[in-house]
Design a protein that fits this description.
The protein is an alpha/beta fold. The protein contains 13 helices and 13 strands. The strands form three sheets. An eight-stranded parallel β-barrel has the order 3-4-6-9-10-11-12-13, surrounded by six helices. Strand 3 (52-54), helix 3 and strand 4 (84-91) form a beta-alpha-beta unit. Helix 5 runs parallel beside helix 7 (234-251) and helix 7 runs parallel beside helix 8 (274-286). The longest helix has 21 residues, at 180-200. The chain is globular and about 70 Å long. The two termini are 24 Å apart. 47% of the residues are buried.
Length: 399
Amino acid sequence: MPPALKRWLMHLRRKSLYMLTSSENWLPSGSNGLKSLFEGFQLQGKYFRNRVWVPPMCQYAAPQGAPTAWHERHYATLAISSGCVVVEATAISSVGRVTPEDLVLDDVSLLPAHQRLVDGIRRAGAVPGIQLCHAGRKGSRSSPWRGDLSLSVKEGGWPILGPSAIAFGENYAVPGEMTLGDIQQTIRQFVESAQLAERAGYEVIEVHGGHGRLVHSLLSPISNLRTDSYGGSFENRCLYAVELARTLRSALRADTILAFRLSCVDWVNNGIALEDSVQLSRLLGIEGVALIDCSSGGIVSPILKKTHPGYQVQFSNAIKVGAGIATAAVGEIFTIELSESILESAQADVIMMGRRSLIDPTYLMRCAALAGYWDLVPLPYRRAMERLLRAEIQLVPEL
């Protein structure tokens, strides 16, 4: 082999092993250096092997509403080394979808496909979870790669509902204003879907209460102009979420974790403020919610907000302290070192690592190996990982 080629191959070997963190020269300080992140913990009596979870991330890949072979591969891969995998936003009814390609869980015929997802996640060692949602006024859209366009009924769309007859944004349809009967029907559908999720084997059920979907739109004064018991005052606007939490908690098994994702601020004038979300989280905790997944924004389109790594951690910290409830930090948390610092400073109980998991699904496993947490490395991969780690480079291994 020519010397130049040999040197180049060695360079590629070293580079493929050890980079892909923001600092490129970070080294976990042994097994104690990532103890907050990789040690197991319990949430309401349920054990999770670590505090790095995969958040729900829509795939728009279920044209029949049921999980496909794509979902099985996708979630089984993401479950490697993770503490919990929360399956993407799954509609509680066909009219609760955002797109025709959304997952749906509203009928027993869908259980076998969801059970396969659960089995794949659990075999990889993670706790299976699912996010349930109703799109509300954001519904009846084409998928992002089909233009994110409003779909008429003739184009395969469906009538959409919201708390008030206010469109989500330009080029969005105006929803029909929900009647009290509509509101109660969606609560029943959430409960029925959650019970099906339990039958499928999901152990964490998260309500999507953010990003402009139905629950969020009832919470926010930007989208909720109702004058009945579900609109007007802060307490009235919280009523739907509180009733939903109470009804779900009473209908689910005691060992099922109930979580809520919230948009903790609206990022628009006169919208939801952080103090509102702290107060709401306190109310949800009283109703048996175990975890608040702290996101933000999405109540109107567009919202122009400059972000940065960890920009939403302030919300998980404020709610954890102010409401006395466990929280998940999410949003541009790309590295293990940032994750560990958030947990070490007690600003959250769980890290939701999303986009990083998608673009680099073995990142967590490689970091766990470097830190000495070999139980998080599947046996078929350990031999390769151990051999690679004998190299002299002291950075986080890359693909």
